[in-house]
Amino acid sequence: MTEFPDDVVLRRARPGDENGILACIQALADYEKEPDAVDNTVEMLTATLFGDDPKAFAFVVDGGDGDIRAIAIWFLTYSTWTGKHGIWLEDLYVHEEYRSLGYGVALLSALAEECVRRGYPRLEWTVLDWNEPAIGFYRALGAEAMEEWTTRRVTGEALQALAQRG
């Protein structure tokens, strides 16, 4: 994977990274004005990323000695139209003090490389409409907005009610 000066390296997440990954997740929630929204735990991350049948994956930028400076957490999607998988980027986060060092570009490049290597035609994610720095960053990399599509989500009581309709 990509290497940076002074022993900083981009690599696949591995057991032992959970605390650093969770710190990035919490920092992202704080940035997105949802500081109390994170229910995830180190144990949950261990099971999700490193259990017997992982359903999510992560790349990290490691500053050495487990200093996780940035993360990209992703999972597979499937398009019935193309008949192929793709990658959904759930979270991309670079700690503020490490921004503008190329970590975000390197993480997205690693995900694009993963798509190409596996023959996946899509790398997708969402961005909050008020996050102009991220929107500009993504636009500069060639990411296009999917103007016709809006994300929908069912959670909480609505999810319970929908489940009971069957």
TrEMBL record:
<feature type="domain" description="N-acetyltransferase">
    <location>
        <begin position="8"/>
        <end position="166"/>
    </location>
</feature>
<keyword id="KW-0012">Acyltransferase</keyword>
<protein>
    <submittedName>
        <fullName>GNAT family N-acetyltransferase</fullName>
    </submittedName>
</protein>
<keyword id="KW-0808">Transferase</keyword>
<dbReference type="InterPro" id="IPR000182">
    <property type="entry name" value="GNAT_dom"/>
</dbReference>
<dbReference type="InterPro" id="IPR016181">
    <property type="entry name" value="Acyl_CoA_acyltransferase"/>
</dbReference>
<dbReference type="Pfam" id="PF00583">
    <property type="entry name" value="Acetyltransf_1"/>
</dbReference>
<dbReference type="InterPro" id="IPR051016">
    <property type="entry name" value="Diverse_Substrate_AcTransf"/>
</dbReference>
